[in-house]
Write a structure and sequence with these properties.
alpha/beta; seven-stranded parallel sheet; two-stranded parallel sheet; 13 strands; 19% strand
Length: 302
């Protein structure tokens, strides 16, 4: 029986991970988050005022810990860097320290971000590319990776960091496609950031969860960082055009041409390392957008 702890199990990635691993045979899944839930079995409530993870690890021996917690908002990291640091860096230290003193054989999976690269010198971006974040969010994710490397090299805690590029799918109520959906409901003509020539490398949520499964089975856990995406550069104008083509009405939009601070220009990942572990894309980008559009049709805006 493999025991997995998912910290941040109430969030977008965490919930998908919990649903996936709970459906597998011979896997015991524990969730942990700041959301109160007294009815869910194998669930640990984290006090956000202290973020004391030691009690969680003292209560159970885990084979793997997947850290899906933290903040994922570049703009907010610019205005509230201390909050971003606490959630994305300091909490990673506290989790690793809890593992060190209570459960030091537990393998730790850190969900990092391609934001550590900033604007790369060339595409595709390999793991050997010089890291140069352009937002507090990117810096704090890079620092979390350094903590993982520190705890492996100094204390032999098995760790790995996943540099996730642009994940999307049902349950994500923020970022590009959710914003596009909200704007399409209330305006005749929509204004968007940038020029449309910016690009991202997208991965659908179910493919990301499969990556985590592959990492559990084949990751080296020696403090390394690995790119997670599909190695496909998709321009924002093309993504917007395809997404809005699903709507019943014609959506008029234009790019304002202005740059949002902290946002990189163009991304495309080199995923040779990930493919070497056995990853193959299962959900093409456009099919994933179709699934996302079907999901947003069922949602109500608060």
């Amino acid at each position: 029986m493999t025991s997995i702890l998912i910290i941040g199990s109430k969030g977008f990635i965490g919930k998908h991970a919990e649903d996936y691993f709970s459906a597998l045979d011979n896997v015991e899944v524990n969730g942990a988050d700041i959301v109160i839930d007294y009815n869910k079995p194998n669930y640990h409530i984290i006090d956000p005022s202290t973020s004391d993870f030691k009690n969680v690890f003292k209560s159970h021996s885990f084979d793997f810990c997947i850290n899906c917690s933290g903040a994922a908002n570049v703009s907010q990291s610019m205005t509230k860097p201390s909050r971003d640091y606490y959630l994305n860096t300091f909490n990673v230290f506290k989790i690793l320290e809890a593992i060190r003193v209570t459960n030091n054989n537990c393998k730790f999976i850190n969900l990092s971000s391609a934001a550590v690269y900033g604007n790369p010198n060339s595409l595709p971006i390999s793991e050997t590319e010089v890291t140069h974040p352009i937002s507090p969010y990117g810096w704090h994710k890079l620092q979390s990776e350094m903590l993982c490397k520190e705890f492996f090299e100094q204390f032999e805690i098995p760790t790995i960091s996943l540099r996730i590029f642009s994940v999307f799918g049902p349950g994500l109520k923020k970022q590009l496609f959710w914003d596009l959906y909200k704007k399409a409901l209330g305006k005749e003509e929509i204004e968007l950031w940038g020029t449309g020539n910016e690009s991202r490398d997208f991965i659908y949520i179910s493919d990301l969860i499969k990556v985590i499964h592959i990492i559990i089975e084949h990751g080296a856990f020696k403090g390394e960082a690995i790119n997670v995406s599909n190695g496909e550069e998709i321009f924002i104008n093309d993504a917007v055009k395809y997404f809005y083509s699903s709507f019943d009405k014609k959506i008029k939009y234009r790019f304002k041409g202005n740059h949002r601070p902290g946002d990189p220009n163009n991304w495309k990942a080199n995923i040779e390392m990930l493919k070497g572990l056995g990853y193959k894309q299962e959900v093409p980008f456009e099919k994933g957008l179709d699934y996302y559009y079907q999901w947003v049709q069922t949602q109500t805006l608060s």
